[in-house]
Design brief:
homodimer; Lyase, Ornithine Decarboxylase, Chain A, domain 1; 9-stranded mixed sheet
Chain lengths: ~375, ~375
């Protein structure tokens, strides 16, 4: 399954699976009457953004001004920087330059950051749209929905074009949580949008999404005795990881192995001698410097082996992963190539400058990770 | 303490502290009569390698052929790739090219990998030195010391120039473990070297080291009633992290805050509203894409704030860190700059293309992270 001419570790992207994932999310979002604005921090690749837009995405989501610059330069015209930016004078100059030829939206979650941003943007503020960030239960950034109107007013006073609200239900990343988080996300968006409307704002955008919740319709889980309107509050979704899938999504039940488009080709470099009756152990050459080291408490380990569901990655160093192998099974030979599914694929893409493409198991070119490392 | 013109997140290196750390390790190693071969995977910077060599290092350690190529191209002539390489034909060609003008040493921990490497190197094998990797208790790669001679014989049969043994006492990375691990490291090196000598090999190099153990003399802890030779078995040490220090080293008691040369400048971007009587919480813009997400179970969090020892980093996303602030203390204002000490500095350097230099608190240029991302 891995082209033998690969030098490991190497990120492989199965383009057929990638295209299927892009088409499936586009169709599902369209069927629900929602706009799709995929989060490009996951892939950071121009060719993938192009495919997402061709499949109907209205624009992109990014995390930083630097990512926005890379995609804007490549011709993406509608970009939301989904982050509560603290915009200094140099960053304001970059935002103004971006907004000259593009539709640019930023996040805001306090009156202080809105005022500071507005002051530094000066007359350019009116060209920048702002969405108020809501905390829908993740308890990271974002305000409570009942405080959204005050932030919106500060943003408007600062000269920004207030367009609506957004949230990221990051607490969906835990077993049993995706549906509950999708409901809380929906409630927060509905309430936040209502608050803005009641304060006199025209709410054009109600933006939600995360890969775990994007394919769930929160209305499905509502009590049928509840007589409120069942339609999803959101007008757009911002999933990112769905293009590739990863071990977290698999272990949360949000993707199947056949949906996983990105793996890291690795080589068995060492066997660890274990005592009789213990599971076997060996070392592969994909470590934290290519897989990333995110490891939620509920995960089975530091990633999965795509073709060996019973194996566990029990330890990770920079260039070694320790694989525990089912007891009694012969270890793979040294030199054997194995496909690792990272826990969190956004970190993997940020670690490599280029990726190798596969079509029907054969190498089919390379893509640059154009926005790699654009942290600011 | 942070130059206000910085756009965050940004890696800052205090060059005066860096130089002091380099000088101190060089002096300590020399005082013990040991050679110093610093691990350059930590920094990946040509200018830092140059400083280490100028301070007396005999050469560099690296983790991959790609890292060796970057440093060799810059003129470093003596490089040990401290990894049990599985050398395919394309990798053998790269090793042969490296060995034309440089002294190149590789790790080997099995007869199979030695034979495979020798076959692919062909007549070039004799120009490559090999050290047998020993497992001194970390239980990652490496063989038991009693199996070292068999691997050495296979390496010699494959045409490699067997030079000695090496180990990495990675189990030193836990509270209370550095001294115990240093003793096990010393025992493994002594036994492995003895096995090679008994099998007729001339042991030129006995290589140990990790930052937690490098400054410890294992002889200090031996039972004085034990009459064996007290000299350290190692002839050279390979610490890496000592140049910068990081939160792991600090929490293991292996460095002081004043020794920490690398921090990540970050901005307070959001305050999280908490209930009365709870510790305050806020969000900074340094996340896993610049700090790395290594977080051993014994760590206090996902890094430390250098100037706020009582703060804890309790959660990490790609572009957000959640900081828990001591109860009753006012939160830093939004927009305030804070210095984060990453848990594991080797990951941070591998995430950025350039770093900013500080001298006496002022910006003093930038260095490229020349070997960033060279995973193979």
């Amino acid at each position: 399954m891995i082209p033998p001419e690969i030098t490991t570790p190497e990120v492989l992207i199965d383009v057929d699976i990638l295209d299927r994932n892009i088409a499936r999310m586009a169709a599902a979002t369209q069927a629900r009457g929602l706009r799709l604005r995929p989060h490009a921090k996951t892939h950071k690749v121009l060719e993938i953004a192009e495919r997402q837009l061709a499949a109907g995405a209205v624009g992109l989501t990014v995390a930083t001004i630097g990512e926005a610059e890379v995609f804007a330069k490549a011709g993406v015209r509608d970009i939301f920087i989904a982050y509560p930016l603290w915009v200094t004078a140099p960053q304001a100059a970059r935002l103004r330059a971006l907004a000259e030829a593009n539709s640019i939206t930023v996040g805001v979650d306090s009156a202080e950051s809105a005022s500071f941003m507005g002051r530094n943007l000066g007359a350019g503020a009116g060209r920048i749209a702002a969405l108020v960030e809501l905390d829908s239960g993740h308890h990271r950034s974002g305000v409570r929905p009942e405080d959204a109107a005050a932030v919106a007013r500060a943003a408007a006073d600062a000269g920004l074009d207030v367009a609506g609200v957004f949230t990221f239900p990051g607490h969906s990343y835990a077993p049993g949580m995706p549906l509950a988080a999708a409901r809380q996300e929906d409630e927060a968006l509905r309430r936040g949008a209502d608050e803005l409307a009641a304060a006199g704002f025209t709410v054009r955008t109600i933006s939600g999404g995360s890969t775990p919740t994007a394919s769930l319709d929160p209305a499905d889980s509502f009590d049928p005795a509840d007589s409120r309107d069942r339609a999803t509050a959101a007008t757009e979704l911002r999933p990112g990881v769905y293009v590739f899938g990863d071990a977290q999504q698999f272990e949360l039940g949000r993707c199947e192995p056949a949906d996983i488009a990105l793996t890291v080709a690795s080589t068995v470099v060492s066997h660890h001698r274990t005592a009789a009756g213990e599971p076997g152990r060996f070392i592969i050459d994909a470590g934290s410097k290519v897989l990333g080291s995110d490891r939620p408490a509920w995960a089975s380990g530091y990633g999965r082996l795509l073709d060996h569901p019973d194996a566990r990655i029990t330890a990770l160093s920079e260039h070694h992963a320790t694989v525990e192998w089912p007891q009694g099974l012969a270890l793979p030979d040294r030199g054997e190539l194995l496909r690792v599914v990272p826990n969190h694929v956004c970190l993997t893409m940020n670690l490599v400058d280029e990726v190798s493409l596969l079509r029907e198991g054969a190498l089919a070119g390379r893509w640059a990770v154009a926005a790699r490392g654009k942290n600011s």
